[in-house]
Amino acid sequence: MGTNYKTGQSLDLKNSTVLIAGAASLVGSHTADQLLAAGTREVILLDNFSFGSMQAIEHLRDHERVKIVRADLLRLPEIIQATKGVDGVVHLAAYMSLGFSQTPWQAIDVNLRGVQNMLEACAINNVKKVIFASSNATYGYGTGIKGELHESMAFHSEGAPPAAILYGASKIMGEQLCRTYLQQRGLDYLVLRYSTVYGERQHYRAANALYIMQTYDQIKSGQAPVMPGDGSETKHFVYVTDVARANVAALQSPTTDTAMNISGPDAVTTGELVQLILDYCGSNLKPEIKPDPPGTVRLTSGGAFYIPHNKAKDAIGWEPQVPIKEGIKRLLDWRKQNDTP
Ligand SMILES: NC(=O)c1ccc[n+]([C@@H]2O[C@H](COP(=O)([O-])OP(=O)(O)OC[C@H]3O[C@@H](n4cnc5c(N)ncnc54)[C@H](O)[C@@H]3O)[C@@H](O)[C@H]2O)c1
């Protein structure tokens, strides 16, 4: 692993208690699965179940090394109580772009004060390390987004929907709150900037993954899939089991005080993505180009882009494993099994 990074605490998982905040959902449930598989002594699943569900963690309910805690990040005393005796925290709970467009008030509270409350509780209880779930939204959206989106890239907002920019800005603030707590209270942290996460237990709250699900639903009901443009727009996904592995690797790594991209092996265009879904469904429907109605939260860019992940390899020894074609198959296989009649 690279030597250019600051080092701090790393967790020996077999002797550690790890708390996942915002656990009852996509990334949280898979992170719990992998922490347990890695032998973690105890995994605490914390959620207020505001939009996560018991269903996502049902399979873990009776696990002997799992504890489920209903608590709200906006209530500091509950979080101080929940983090007693905890060695590591994976902080996931957040509102994304769609949440910022629907309920901006709650989104700002959870993405800012919620993060601050968790960091304060961790500092009080001498938690060794926090992994903060950030996003490629920290580069912004719109016309400035093209080429390679390296970790040092600046934030762009021109031509993007306000909700997406508010979301990205909230993640930038969350990252900097982490750094403040390291500087002022000695709390080690790593920031993982996920690109769009997709996979089994997918929800309908993330704009790009939502596009996969909507396209699948259209094709299954015999309608032509709709593309908002000519199909050349880039998207960069990362499969959820790869994200969960990154969270586990980050907890185990001594690297501290830095941010890294967690992206899939390759970017795809919208046209390629739609074709993958058509192929999966065995359909020869032709995509229909229909511009979005005004006010749609669509994540835009200024041209082709790619999100490199070589820093994560260097800093925590992580690389993505699941190519997009395989990931789409796994996601849609899961979706088929869980179709309600
Ligand atoms: N899903 C993606 O495509 C994606 C992409 C980039 C970054 N991220 C980031 O990864 C993280 C996890 O993503 P996800 O898709 O699993 O998230 P999600 O939206 O499905 O889950 C968030 C969880 O947090 C819980 N929560 C919300 N407010 C809370 C509060 N006040 N107290 C306690 N729990 C609360 C919700 O009930 C939910 O279970 C988020 O921080 C997100 O911003 C996600």
Stated plainly, the CATH topology of the domain at 14-198 and 239-263 and 305-321 is called Rossmann fold
What is the count of helical runs? 11
In percent terms, what proportion of residues is strand? 15-25%
Number of strands: 17
SSE arrangement, N to C? EEHEHEHEHHEEHEEHEEEHEEEHEEHH
| Rough outline | globular
Identify the CATH homologous superfamily of the domain at 14-198 and 239-263 and 305-321: NAD(P)-binding Rossmann-like Domain
What radius of gyration results from the CA coordinates?
19 Å
The molecules bound to the chains, other than polymers, are: nicotinamide-adenine-dinucleotide
Helix content: 25-40%
Poorly predicted regions are none
Level-1 CATH class name of the domain at 14-198 and 239-263 and 305-321:
Alpha Beta
User: What is the correct CATH architecture of the domain at 14-198 and 239-263 and 305-321?
Assistant: 3-Layer(aba) Sandwich
**Mean pLDDT, as a whole number?**
94
Domain NAD-dependent epimerase/dehydratase: 18-262
Organism: Orrella daihaiensis
Protein name: NAD-dependent epimerase/dehydratase family protein
Family: Belongs to the NAD(P)-dependent epimerase/dehydratase family.
